[in-house]
Amino acid sequence: MFKHKHYVPILKGKRAEFPALGLLHSKDRITPLMEAVPSKPATQIPQGMAAQWPIDSPYFIDFLFFDDLEDNPQPENH
Questions:
Q1: How many Cβ atoms are within 10 Å of 17's Cβ, its own excluded?
Q2: CB-based burial of residue 34 (10 Å sphere; 0-12 exposed, 13-18 middle, 19+ buried)?
Q3: What is the rounded CA–CA span in Å between residue 72 and residue 12?
Q4: Over its length of 78 residues, how does the chain's per-residue pLDDT go in tens digits?
Q5: Is the pTM value of this prediction over 0.90?
Q6: Do the Cβ atoms of 34 and 60 come closer than 8 Å?
Q7: 3-state DSSP call for residue 12?
């Protein structure tokens, strides 16, 4: 697990966040937490991170604001 000198920034999973992570000089002791944006596809974060974050470095994705379709079924059109 993490030690006391490990940083977990909480970032929105928006387009500008990915290049910003890629510009970091050192990615040691950093594990970003990306909040998924419901208006964007769920695959946006893994695709953006693949382009900017080392493949062997972990990151977290928070899907808190995504709706579960089983909990909120769509009304049927008649």
A1: 19
A2: buried
A3: 24
A4: 777 889 999 999 888 999 999 999 999 999 999 999 888 888 999 999 999 999 999 999 999 887 765 555 555 665
A5: no
A6: yes
A7: strand
CA–CA separation, 13 and 47 (whole Å): 11
One-letter identity of residue 21: L
- In the numeric block, which tokens belong to residue 74? 């769509």
Q: Which residue has the tokens 């008649």?
A: 78
Phi, psi of 13 (to 5 degrees): -80, 55
| Amino acid identity, position 58 | P
Residues present in the chain in total? 78
d(CA 15, CA 42): 13
Tokens coding 33: 């937490």
